[in-house]
Design goal:
mainly alpha
């Protein structure tokens, strides 16, 4: 059980990439801005007319992207908690692996010439 629980609880010092937190807000903000520009194009209006709508929908997209990030983090935290709990309740399903040398893992190789 020791190694399985260590895999789920140990902090490996890996930093989360900056793009993880910025991808959804930027993508959805640009999508909101572009959707208003596209609707103006379809209605044969100047692309940047009604700039307040561009700003409002773009800002709403950024906030929606932040909410999506929060929900994603909550989902992964809950999933990890469930996995840790399962490993704690069922240690017999997670025996410590046998230590083998690398040569014992590889199969014999006979070249065919």
């Amino acid at each position: 059980m020791g190694y399985a629980l260590d895999l789920l609880t140990k902090d490996y010092g890996i930093q989360k990439p900056l793009t993880n937190d910025l991808y959804n807000p930027i993508l959805l903000g640009v999508a909101g801005f572009a959707s208003i520009a596209f609707s103006n194009y379809i209605m044969r209006r100047p692309l940047m007319s009604g700039i307040q709508r561009h700003v409002a929908v773009g800002t709403a997209g950024v906030f929606f992207g932040c909410w999506v990030n929060k929900k994603r983090d909550e989902h992964y935290a809950e999933r990890d908690a469930v996995l840790r709990h399962y490993v704690e309740l069922h240690p017999e399903d997670f025996p410590d692996p046998d230590k083998k040398k690398f040569g014992e893992i590889l199969m014999r190789w006979h070249p065919i010439r």
